[in-house]
Input
Amino acid sequence: MSLFSWRALLRLATASLLLALVGFSYGSVHGSAQDRTAEGASIRFVQGSPDAPSVDIIVDGAPLAEGLAFGDASDYLPLTSGTHQVQVVPSGEGTDSALIDEEIDLDGGSAYIYAVAGTLNDIQSKLFSVDLDDLDENQARVRLIHLAPGQDNVDLGVVGGDKWSDDVDFPNAGDYKDVDAGTYDLQVSAHDGNAALVSIAGVNVLPARAYDIVLLGQSGGADLTTLTLETRVSPSCGSVLGIGADDMACVRVINTSPDSAGLDLYINDALVIQNLAYGASTEFTAVPSGDDSSIKVTATGGSLDSPILDDETDLDAGQAYELLITNNADDLDLTTADVDLSPVPAGQARIRAIGAAIDAPDFDVVITDGPTLFEGVGFQDVSDNTVVDASTYDLQFKDGDNVLARTEDFQVEADMFYELIAIGSTDDGTFQILALSVPTAPIAGEAATPSASPVMGENELAEPATPELVSTPTP
Output
């Protein structure tokens, strides 16, 4: 199986096209090769000044978003954490004509909305942080951002029902409110008033999203309107992968037992994969969730009455898992690892390492001539996740100064989760690195649509897959 699906490649091409269209140098705003492992921030821009011209957003001297007319919002774009110089200029003009010229500070792993607000003769900006904390099942969060100059304080609420944002003044935002997913008729009204300033009918509030409803226009005008901005927060694995309902878990099985001829794996006595060879895996498959789920492994065609591995693991609803079959065939173990499919900062990916080489020493994963990603990954260890820029990496897997394996051209795409799995043996020279990847949820917009795996049902098996061998032999 190829490391990347064609849909993932298409998404990367789309992202690359977007960066080209907005006309900025990725390196100039997202850091150089020396800090590609620093977790970045994501930011989108809103032009909310009703009488200002279209504007370009210039960050650290490079155009990041161009031609934003009143009411326009950019997609999320990547920036490094830390301080940046932001200039808002009329489209096509130089920085000498900047309407706004200021510094902003961004935290790594955070998402922001940078809003241009006020009338042209009193133009200003406001930076809003988006709440990316996990949401409960079937929940979303909503708030109102007030960008209508001259308009008194306003409320956002359900028509004939609950108030969601209360007493929001210009140019600020109300607190987020967690609400049930569903379809709502909403309205923006003067604070404690009944008459709608703006009616928003049939708003489809989807789970695992943060919604920022932006009030635009000017007080007393007929042009008051709203703009709804959506950010993915904590989607279920099924919604990200397109394979099952939100109350199911998602599993991928990997056989790292070097002397196993072929293995069958059962979850709660239902056959999930048959004849899984060493160094192979399944695609993700949706399975029933539940605590103490039974995991049994037999030799291919073997009886469930005498499994060679009989274990239990918790499978939470909406969570993705790796089930790694580890150790030698006469002493199999199960290693269960959560897979974090939540959004990563724009332009970045999530990565981790797993030790499944039986007699290998603890190893470090090092970027050649760069930082160490992971230290001391031992047998059956699962490292913490780290975030890196989408790029090409030369990676070394080292025991002290001894290079156990190396991959000189490891391609990392944005919005993906990668695993580097050490298998084999250092004693017999079979130590090698397998790579698996899966799309994460995008930082904004609708659910990702990678190629779907089947939902496991009666007499259905997980689709087999083969991780890509990415390491090269070392002397």
User: Anything to note?
Assistant: Helices lie at 6-22, 26-30, 237-241.
